[in-house]
Amino acid sequence: MADALSIIPSSVFRNLSDKLYEKRKNAALELEGVVKQLAAAGDHDKISAVINLLTTEFTYSPQANHRKGGLIGLAAATVALTTEAAQHLEQIVPPVLFSFSDQDSRVRYYACEALYNIAKVVRGDFIVFFNQIFDALCKLSADSDANVQSAAHLLDRLVKDIVTESDQFSIEEFIPLLRERMNVLNAYVRQFLVGWITVLDSVPDIDMLGFLPDFLDGLFNMLSDSSHEIRQQADSALSEFLQEIKNSPSVDYGRMAEILVQRAASPDEFTRLTAITWINEFVKLGGDQLVPYYADILGAILPCISDKEEKIRVVARETNEELRAIKVDPAEGFVVGAILSIAKSQLSSEWEATRIEALHWISTLLNRHRAEVLCFLNKIFDTLLKALSDPSDEVVLLVLEVHACIAKDPQHFRQLVVFLVHNFRIDNSLLEKRGALIIRRLCVLLDAERVYRELSMILEGEADLDFASIMVQALNLSLLTSSELAELRVLLKQSLVNPAGKDLFVSLYASWCHSPMAIISLCLLAQTYQHASVVIQSLVEEDINVKFLVQLDKLIRLLETPIFAYLRLQLLEPGRYTWLLKALNGLLMLLPQQSAAFKILRTRLKTVPAYSFNGDQIKRTSSGNPYTQIHHHIPSGSQISEDGEVNQDIGNSSLHNGINFRSRLQQFEQMQHQHRLHAKAQTQLRNISTSSKEVQRPEEPQRQPSVAEMNRPPSRSSRRGPGQLQL
User: Fold this and answer.
1) CA distances for 535 relative to 218, 540, 562, angstroms
2) The dihedral of CA 684, 687, 693, 694: what is its sign?
3) Residue 546 dihedral angles phi and psi, to the nearest 5°
4) Which residues contact 34 (CB under 8 A, 6 or more apart)?
5) CB–CB of 679/664 below 8 Å?
6) Is the whole-model pTM more than 0.70?
7) In whole angstroms, what is the distance from residue 488 CA to residue 485 CA?
8) Segment holding 429, helix H or strand E
9) Any idea what the Cα angle at residue 224 is, between residues 218 and 228, rounded to 5°?
């Protein structure tokens, strides 16, 4: 310090700390002259002493005017040194940078002015301080004083010019600082950052594209800024980078894909649109690099397909189609399980379009990578079953197509039907609202006969008798009305003449026994009219309840539809179809006379032509057990067909085309006996529940039937038909 004081006149130091700017300026000019003389003499030690004095006594002084004088003095010394200033920058620049954070705005202003003058002199030599200068300018760009902001802006422009012409700038050292600053929310700082990114990207020798993943997220974050100008600048920078990506042979798609996936879920529409646009280009350009990220990309695309903004929906759909069109083998890193997991999660989306596309993906994977998908079947099967309850018919139909594709294998077919029945059992609304649609569609996709046989086999042993009855009624209604099951109806009509029809009839009969009206409908469809009449006469009082009458009402109305046109035409030959007449009259007798169904059926029967029956026919169609009576009224070696005609050379009168109707009747009666016992048990439980809530006189408890009694079929004598008394 002593050397410096001896070199510089005391008046210069005194004026450097004066409150008047003019005095400080004149003192700086005198200081500049002295330093020039020292530089000419090559006495750099004394120059260092002067700079050290300016730093310690002035720029770090607690007095604001001293700090201002120190800054202008350092700038003057640098100007005096000109080309030799570089060797003293380690002393000069740090105190100036320190002053950028001074509490006095005027000091900060003079710090900008000083560094501006220093930079003009040393140019590229001060690049070594670039990160510190950039950090300081970043903060000053958001300064509360407008004059400081203006000074910082001028300095910033000069630094940009120096960096663009310098070959010493290190982008690798700068990027970590830039990445850190990209999270700042201040609007002025964001403008400052975007400006620098744009400038650096314009320099041919600086590869900003290679470091784009480091600051891409920050740029996307600016797209939702409240300032329109910042949004526009960020979008412009992103557009320029996207164009460079299209023209670049080498791009790190992977790291950027992760950022884009996150930004595609942004609450800001503009951000989502930009992100999905980038993803669209990446899918087209990325190739093998994007294979490990396909699942994440799909997870971003599917929600955007249902976006409220049409532009986003359009781009998302296009991207989805592009991605699905790419065929990649699991050996190339394509993870089927990850894609399935995304598709499964999107099946619970609130948006129909997203759920539909998720199902399309599962279907696509099944077609391309069936073995791999089936390995994950246990993880997605329950979700696919739940999707059958979807409020959208289109979703349900697509789910059924996926199920049908899975069920091509026998073991998966059985699993599907078992789980389907289980879902119908636990979700009554599914059976009620979607049952018919599901059954019809499965019949189209998987062969109607196969589906009905499997369902019948499962329902035959169903423990929940109430559910079994409801399910059979639903299946029966679809069988009688659905156009998809027309071929099945044709086959059943041939039950008495076609072995395939007979097998189907017998297969369905076992489970149709859960519902008397379903059995009667099946017999009318199969033209086993004699058996239909026998079933009707086997009904007892407990069978004819409200539910039965409702089902009977539906059947009577169905008899008037084109499906049963053949049956109505057969009424034109009452002599040949006497059992049909008896069956229909039996149904008529079960209907309340005031019901609409009674009037419909009676009107139809009135149109039947008069026919004179001979004695044998009357006996054959009389009440009682027809199988026993037939055995006594036809010649040995003959068989009576279901339409009443006698055929020779068949021995067993109760066996028609291999169908043992006597055995079928016993099967029906046993099942109905179980239903009656079940109904009684349910009634007793309800009565007990009701009585427990009321104060009643103790009564003798009613004996519960034993297990053996519940499983014992009714005796022939306990069954009474219409007009018969039980003794």
Assistant:
1) 79, 10, 25
2) negative
3) -60, -45
4) 7, 8, 12, 50, 80
5) no
6) yes
7) 5
8) helix 428-446
9) 110
* 328-371 confidence digits (pLDDT tens): 888 777 889 999 999 999 999 999 999 999 999 999 999 999 99
**What's phi and psi for 655, nearest 5 deg?**
-115, 110
Using CA atoms, how far apart are residues 527 and 524, in angstroms rounded to an integer? 5
User: pLDDT class for 577, splitting at 50, 70, 90?
Assistant: very high
Residue positions counted in the chain: 727
Q: Which of 613, 590, 618, 614 is nearest to 602 (CA)?
A: 590
pLDDT above 90 covers a percentage of the chain that reads 65
**DSSP letter (8 states) at residue 702:** P
Q: How many CA atoms lie within 13 A of 678 on its CB side?
A: 16
Distance between CA 274 and CA 282 in Å, rounded?
Answer: 12
Judge whether 343 and 361 are in contact, CB under 8 Å: yes
In the chain the first and final C-alpha atoms are separated, in Å, by 137
Residues 6+ apart with CB under 8 A from 560: 568, 600, 604
SS3 of residue 204 by DSSP: coil
- Number of separate helices (H) and strands (E) present in the chain: 38, 4
What CA–CA distance (Å, rounded) separates 417 from 456?
10
Tokens of 663: 């055995």
- The continuous run of DSSP H or E covering 515 comes out as none
Q: Which two tokens stand for residue 401?
A: 């197509």
Structure-model confidence comparison of residues 657 and 615, the more confident one: 657
pLDDT at 213: 94
Is residue 646 helix, strand or coil?
Answer: strand
Tokens, residue 348 = 């619970």
Take residue 19 and report the two structure tokens written for it.
């409150």
Asked if 305 contacts 316 with a C-beta cutoff of 8 angstroms, the reply is yes
Beta strands in 312-432 (DSSP E): none
329: tokens are 């083998």
> Which helix H or strand E contains 583, and what residues bound it?
helix 578-590
Three-class SS state of 648: strand
Distance set, CA 673 to CA 203, 430, 573, 719 (Å): 92, 29, 36, 10
What tokens appear for 88 in the block? Answer: 């003293």
**Is the Cβ–Cβ distance between 640 and 653 less than 8 Å?**
yes
Two structure tokens written together for 373: 């998908």
Q: What one-character DSSP code corresponds to residue 328?
A: -
pLDDT at residue 651 in the model: 34
Unique residue bearing structure tokens 């041939």: 494
Please spell the DSSP secondary structure of 653-684, one letter per residue: TTEETTEEHHHHHHHHHHHHHHHHHHHHHHHH
C-alpha to C-alpha distance for 552 and 545, rounded to whole angstroms:
10
Mean pLDDT of 602-619: 71
Count of alpha carbons within 13 Å of 651, Cβ hemisphere only? 0
**With contact defined as beta carbons under 8 Å apart, do 631 and 653 qualify?**
yes
Query: Which uninterrupted H or E stretch holds 133?
Result: helix 130-140
In DSSP terms, 659 is beta-bridged to 656
The letter for the amino acid at 360 is H
Place of tokens 């179809």: 577
69 contacts 20 by C-beta, under 8 angstroms? no
